[in-house]
Amino acid sequence: MAAAGAAGTIAVAEALHWRASRRHLDLRQGRPRGGAQAVIVLGFPSGRDGEPHPLQRWRTEIAVRSLAPGEDGRLVFTGGGPPGAPTEAEAMATYAREVLGVPAERIRLETAASTTWENIAFAQPFVESARTVAIASDPLHAARGRRYLLRQRPDLAARMVPADDYHLGDHVWLKVATTVYELARPVLRRMRAHLEARAQ
């Protein structure tokens, strides 16, 4: 029973992530080859020891394999952090340079954002001139990022291409965790709004 339940949970998470990887994209002409000229990498807090969180590593790996190989391609890491500690953007950029071998000249940092909405808003100046733009994160979160870009800058969103973010069987338990979070997120937001209203 437990094995069947776990298998079912994984199957649901895989299906939702696959579907999310295609959401808010115009795929009528098929998946573009060669990656994006600019990739916005959405932030996530580092571990308590300062090491990259598994979600940060996953998002960075997605970003690197989504980037076009030309010298003008760039990764835009976005995300702030607590005073005195490396920002989310810096932690992911360090992982990209030191572990994944991305040249420093292909990396840009945005270190003020504290929410996904701000990740998208504050990264826009770095990608204004890009021919194509991808948003890198776990697929469910990336879909939310693309929706925000559509709301904030429809003209820039018209240049969006898919990130290479969905691989079957890749990071299975992180897919389960992010599925639970994204499904619970609307409920948590309503609860927070209710508590704030009662406190006023």
UniProtKB/TrEMBL annotation:
Cross-referenced InterPro entries: Cell_Envelope_Assoc, DUF218, Rossmann-like_a/b/a_fold
DUF218 domain: residues covered: 37-163
GO cellular component annotations of the record: plasma membrane
Taxonomic superkingdom: Bacteria
Gene3D superfamilies registered for this protein in UniProt: HUPs
UniProt cross-references to Pfam families, sorted A to Z: DUF218 (PF02698)
PANTHER family for the chain: DUF218 DOMAIN-CONTAINING PROTEIN, INNER MEMBRANE PROTEIN, PROBABLE PERMEASE
Protein name: DUF218 domain-containing protein
